From TrEMBL:
Sections of the chain in a coiled coil: none
Similarity annotation: Belongs to the histone deacetylase family.
SUPFAM superfamilies from the UniProt entry: Arginase/deacetylase
Record protein name field: Acetoin utilization deacetylase AcuC
Gene3D superfamilies, A to Z: Histone deacetylase domain
Residue ranges constituting the Histone deacetylase domain according to the UniProt record: 18-289
Provenance organism: Salinimicrobium catena
BP term (GO), one: epigenetic regulation of gene expression
Keywords: Hydrolase
A molecular function GO annotation: histone deacetylase activity
Recorded superkingdom: Bacteria
Length: 300
């Protein structure tokens, strides 16, 4: 059964005009239920994680500053969201949802988080709408529990997973792969184990050609026993914060290829949604919903 982390706290009010589309976290589950792709049984509400799981990735001083709301103005501004205790609670629950989804993926082959993909969070700071790096936390959890020995991070958000790259720099148990816009945020990038930088305006055919040439060879060489997939839909031509030119059909084919590859090779995969900032919320919801539809189609 497909298991999907969702908690009502994923949807918090933001100031009018804020460019972060918080409402997508409510609309995607509603759409999946409405069309019959999922039932209530597919969804689970994560509990608060053991703080030790967060501290396995993030510095204690940073975590305490978030909890106590004592970040400096500059530190808070880099995150880009209005800080509150509820927002920090939300980040804890997102990380917990990805841990639990990773556990479900070991059982069912795949599991997903409606939120997550917070790949700009470093060990000691947050930025770009990210405070805790949910997939890094879950990866460390799997390794600490002895449930995985080699993990592959497949980050196909339009923005480089700079925080993930920093967290796992020099860690041979986790291979970080990020395929992203060359001229997109973050403008000072970290070094992943493999970075593929894409020029502005790249379209479906070229994007998919590069991905399909890269991922199977990477899996063959690294031999991961678990994959984390960040399926940001900000590669769309309509995206306000991306500079690529992929269509919704191309984005769906990207997801199909990644998920089919994991299924065919019998490698468990956890999927977190990542970014999506098109002007019309319908474009964002449809593109994200495709990822869940494909998970059902391919795995179940």
């Amino acid at each position: 059964m497909l298991k999907i982390a969702y908690h009502p706290i994923y949807v918090l009010p933001l100031p009018k005009g804020h460019r972060f589309p918080m409402e997508k976290y409510e609309l995607v589950p509603q759409q999946l239920l409405h069309e019959g792709t999922c039932t209530e049984e597919n969804f689970f509400e994560p509990d608060f994680p053991d703080e030790a799981d967060i501290l396995a990735v993030h510095d204690k001083e940073y975590v305490e500053a978030l909890k106590q709301q004592t970040l400096s103005y500059r530190e808070a501004r880099k995150i880009g969201l209005p800080l509150s205790k509820r927002l920090v609670e939300r980040e804890f629950l997102i990380a917990s949802g990805t841990i639990k989804a990773a556990e479900y993926a070991l059982r069912y082959g795949i599991a997903m988080n409606v939120a997550g993909g917070t790949h700009h969070a470093y060990t000691n700071m947050g930025e770009g709408f990210c405070m805790f790096n949910d997939q890094a936390v879950a990866a460390k959890w799997l390794l600490r529990k002895g449930l995985s020995k080699k993990i592959l991070m497949v980050d196909l958000d339009v923005h480089q997973g700079n925080g993930t790259a920093e967290i796992f720099a020099g860690d041979d148990s986790v291979f970080t792969f990020s395929m992203h816009g060359k001229n997109n945020y973050p403008f000072k990038k970290e070094r992943s184990d493999l970075d593929i930088e894409l020029e502005n305006g790249i379209r479906d055919e070229e994007y998919l050609r590069i991905l399909k040439q890269t991922l199977p060879k990477l899996i063959e060489k690294q031999k991961p026993d678990f994959i984390f997939y960040l399926s940001g839909v900000d590669i769309l031509a309509t995206d306000k914060l991306g500079k690529l030119a992929c269509t919704e059909a191309g984005c769906k084919e990207r997801d199909r290829f990644v998920l089919q590859t994991c299924h065919d090779l019998n490698i468990p995969v956890e999927v977190s949604m990542g970014g999506g900032y098109s002007p019309h919320i319908k474009n964002i919801v449809d593109a994200h919903a495709n990822t869940f539809r494909l998970a059902q189609e391919i795995f179940f």
